[in-house]
Amino acid sequence: MLVGDNIKLLALEPEHIDLLYEWENDTNIWRISQTVVPYSKELLQQYINSAQDIQIHGQIRFVISHNDKPVGTIELFDYDPVNARAGVGIMLDKSHRREGIASKSLQIIVKYSKEVLLLNQLYCNIIDENTISKKLFEGAGFIHTGKKLDWIRGQNGYQSLVFYQLLLNQE
Known about the structure:
Layout: E1 2-4, E2 7-11, H1 17-24, H2 30-33, H3 41-50, H4 54-57, E3 60-66, E4 69-80, E5 85-92, H5 101-115, E6 121-127, H6 131-139, E7 143-154, E8 157-167
């Protein structure tokens, strides 16, 4: 468990299956997560049982607990130990957004990435129109370093992604 100010990042447990099922099948966030089909509880259970080691699976997901209540997830993915980098993604339940939880969770995962995983950098991709996420990552020190034009196809056409990086070992 990783701990910060009223925030805990918990390993996925079987008790989280119903929340994961709800969050992963929320079609309102599929565009951001690039999901195109619903997840079954059986598939999510297999994921919980097997994907807990970033060294083996290249990713790790934590449940964000605020005041001992699960409110979202944060994950490291595309873990590359050779080049010491990983992508980071965060999802908060809509009832807990704009409370500073995402910012505190991001601080915890940045510290974990630097001090435990010994990563050199983290990165994220954000849909260009998602100003809230851009402010979140910029507030954590991530720098906008590029843009992928017309990268995501949605109901209203294509949208661009912006690429952000955080170099962890720069003083």
